[in-house]
Structure formats: C-alpha cells, structure tokens
Write a structure and sequence with these properties.
N-utilizing Substance Protein B Homolog, Chain A, Alpha-Beta Plaits, nine-stranded mixed β-sheet, four-stranded antiparallel β-sheet, 20 helices, binds S-adenosylmethionine
Length: about 450
C-alpha cells in the first residue's frame, strides 16, 4: 500500500480536475512500474472512492465544522477521501492510516492530521442518516447517487423497479469483445483465446461478440486488442449497428461518431468503409476517430469535423440510414464510469436534451424518403430517450417508429410504437436506449 497510496492520491486529484477514471489510470499505469496486484489495488480504491463519494464526503463533512471540503484544496480533499475509505470502509486502525498518509497532509489551519482522522473515525454511520427522512435521500446514501437522480428514477418506474435496478449501478457489467471482421474472424480469435486460456462464451443475439468470463492477462494487453483484431464493446453498443443493418450500396451517416466504436462496426458489417460518412464536432475527438478507424482497418470512410446540426448546409445529398448516438448523461454507464454520477447536474440534463433534439431534427433533414434514423443513448432517463422521440414524432408526421432488431432488452410500448430499453440488472450490459425512426415515402 505504501507504493500505491501516492498513485491513488494523484489519480483522485486528476479525476477531480475533469479527466475520466479510465484515462487517468491508464496513464498512471503506463508511467509507473507496478505489479498486477498493485494495479488491481489502484483500480479498486479509485473506483470505490468514486462510487461512494457522497457517503465518504458526508463522513468528512459531519466530522468537522472548522473547515469545508470545498476550501481545503484538491490535495487534502483526496487525502481525506482515501483516509476515510481506509478508516470507515476497510476498518483499518487509526495509527496505520496515520503512518501511511501523514506525509501527504498539507496543514489546514491549526488542525493536526490525527485530530481530523480521529473525528472521522468517531463519526457513526447513523449520524450520516440524520435528517434523511424521505426514501430518495436514504437510498441516495445506500446506493451512492445524487438524491435528484433517485427521485427521477422513482418518478419514472416507481419504487419497486428502482430498488431492483440500483444495486446493478454499483457492479461492473460483463466485459465483451467484438471480433473485428475487417481484420480477423471468429474462428481465429476463438483459437487464439483457447491457446491463451481466455475463457469466454458466445453471445447469441449479437454475432461476433464474445463475453469474457476469465482472462489470465487483461484484454487491453493482448496482441489481438493492440493490433485491432478485437474491440472492447458493450453488448448494447454492439447491438446498435446491427439495428442499423447497413448494406453495401447505401449511403450511411454516423452523426456523432468519435471514438468510432459504432462507425467501425458499421464498416465491418458492410465489409468496407465505402459509402460511410462519420462526423464529430470536436478537434481532438475527430483525431482519435481517424486514428481508431485506421487501426481497425475501416478505410475509405469520409470523416468530417463539423457540428452535425449544420451538416445539411455543407452537403447536397441525403442518406439511406443515419446513426445518431448523441452526447448524453451516460446514466446507463454509472457502474463502469462512477465519476459521471457526481458530475451531472440537473441543468446539464436540460442542456443534453436540447442538443439531442436539435441533432435529431437535423438528422431528419438528412434522411432520404424511405430511409431511417437509429437513435441511441447510454442513458436511463426518459427525458433523453422516449420523451425526445415522442416530441419528435409529434412535430414530424412524415416519420414513424419501426421495431428494432436484434432485441437484447425490452420492447417498451410508447404512444407512437415500440422502443428498445436495455437495463443493467436484467440484460447483462449497460443501460441503453435504441429506437428506429423511419421516414415515409
Ligand atoms: C456518445 S459519443 C459517440 C460515441 C460513438 N458513437 C461510438 O460509439 O464510439 C458523442 C460524440 O458526439 C460528439 N458531438 C457532440 N456534439 C456534436 C455535434 N453538435 N455534432 C457532431 N458531433 C458532436 C462528441 O464529440 C462525442 O464524440
């Protein structure tokens, strides 16, 4: 733990400045020489602290009125979070925690580090629940989510379904890999996995997708991953391009494409990138997209860096099929990206919804007669999913819903037809929403 503690602190500081947990940990691991066990410990602490952030922060807040978490600086904040995890969740002794972390403490007023830790240690879990009288605020501490999100879930589905769903947002979803048929094939990958003792099962509903049961080496370190013969992709995400069902002589648009997981899958389904246009707004993400498509052998794709809401001004043709996978709250991915649960504010949700509406309206202008739009999000909020679709169909009578195939989740009936909803506690993948909107002739 002596070697890992400064790495955990440094990761917590970087993540608080806005970086994702995965990117931060990957960079730290590339830069340091640590064993597999130390790497697991680093992942464990950073993920656990971010999953339980409200619970941990409440211990710190309740233990003292002489300083505020906001004002003590990111270094001390990270230090107190790790200390609290060790004391209150791992139940380590105070002298052990002091010895391990004392050197990283920056003086707060005239408070000794031992005084702060003592009062965190003496704070009881019952004290955290004081004044939490309604169900949502209790569940918020029990399942580590902002209260407003729990309230929204209860409004959407009621208490029973919400209670069934919440534990799944704390567990990692299964790991899936998609065989990249532009560079390899299922037989080859299965042969190689067998020789490397990687245990897997085939996913029936999604061709060329394997669920990893156990692997002696982390998948991102195996040759097939590094060379782009396989891609790590959630089952729900891989289902989206199959729902699009791209064909060779069609014109296809991926409106929000980076990092290119779905674009590359579309190319693999067609057997080439010809006819595919991939758009992204962001400079850096467009660069990542091009790099990724190159690695995956998805050549001949037209990549355009622009605001997809303006695309109709820049081109004079329309598309047979459009994939719109817009930016969203990511609330279906809280288990694998726990930092997102604390970053999203209610006003951000409104911002996402407005952007999604505008992008969908732009997709409509770019769709050929008889063509279709596949709209997908990794969100669980109705605001970003069925509500958007209902209001779009009310405003655009020349569009209607068609059933989505394959079906890996629920076919939920809304006023205008069926949408596909995928839930982490029921469908062995992250939360997703997929809908097919067809344009009339
Ligand atoms: C959910 S991600 C897309 C993930 C991608 N479809 C995949 O499967 O790998 C959303 C992307 O939309 C891009 N984006 C955001 N606003 C946009 C806009 N107005 N026009 C085009 N792209 C946009 C973001 O930069 C981001 O890369």
């Amino acid at each position: 733990m002596n070697k890992i503690a400064p790495l955990i602190l440094s990761a917590l500081e970087t993540i608080e400045k806005g970086k994702s947990i995965r990117v931060t940990l990957r960079a730290i691991i590339e830069d340091t020489n640590i064993t597999k066990e130390e790497e697991s410990m680093l992942y464990y602490y950073v993920f656990e602290i971010y999953r339980k952030l409200n619970f941990i922060d409440l211990y710190i807040k309740n233990s003292s009125s002489s300083y505020s978490l906001k004002k003590i600086g990111v270094e001390n904040r990270s230090l107190l979070r790790l200390s609290t995890h060790l004391l209150k969740i791992d139940l380590k002794s105070l002298p052990d925690v002091l010895e391990l972390l004392q050197d990283y403490y920056y003086q707060i007023g005239n408070l000794e580090f031992s005084t702060i830790l003592n009062s965190i240690k003496d704070t009881s879990e019952e004290q955290l629940y004081e004044n939490r009288d309604d169900l949502a605020s209790k569940l918020s501490l029990q399942f580590y989510l902002p209260t407003w999100i729990i309230r929204r879930f209860i409004d959407q589905w009621g208490e029973k379904f919400t209670l069934e769903l919440l534990p799944s947002l704390l567990k990692n979803p299964p790991l899936y890999i998609r065989v990249n048929t532009l560079k390899s094939n299922l037989d080859k990958i299965e042969g190689s996995f067998n020789s490397q003792n990687i245990e897997y099962t085939k996913v029936e509903e999604v061709e060329n997708l394997l669920k990893i049961i156990k692997s002696p080496i982390p998948i991102p370190r195996i040759k097939e991953y590094i060379e782009g013969d396989i891609v790590i992709q959630q089952k729900a995400s891989a289902a989206v391009s199959l729902v699009l069902n791209p064909q060779e002589d069609e014109r296809i648009l991926d409106m929000c494409a980076s990092p290119g997981g779905k674009t590359a899958h579309i190319a693999a389904l067609i057997g080439s990138g010809k006819g595919i246009t991939a758009v992204d707004l962001n400079d850096e993400r467009t660069r990542v997209l091009k790099q990724r498509l190159q690695l995956l052998g998805a050549h001949d794709i037209t990549v355009i860096k622009t605001d997809a809401r303006e695309l109709y001004n820049k081109i004079d043709y329309t598309f047979d099929k459009i994939l719109l996978d817009p930016p969203c709250s990511g609330s279906g991915t809280y288990s694998s990206r726990p930092e997102n649960r604390w970053r999203l504010k209610q006003r951000d949700l409104r911002w996402y919804v407005n952007l999604q509406k505008e992008l969908l309206q732009s997709a409509a202008r770019l769709t050929k007669e008889n063509g279709c739009i596949i709209y997908s999000t990794c969100s669980l909020f109705h605001d970003e999913n069925s509500d958007i679709i209902t209001s779009f169909l009310q405003d655009n009578e020349n569009f209607f819903l068609e059933k989505t195939n394959p079906n890996i989740g629920f076919q939920t009936k809304i006023e205008a037809g069926n949408v596909q909803e995928v839930f982490p506690h029921l469908h062995e993948t992250e939360g997703f929403f997929i809908v097919k909107i067809k344009r009339r002739k």
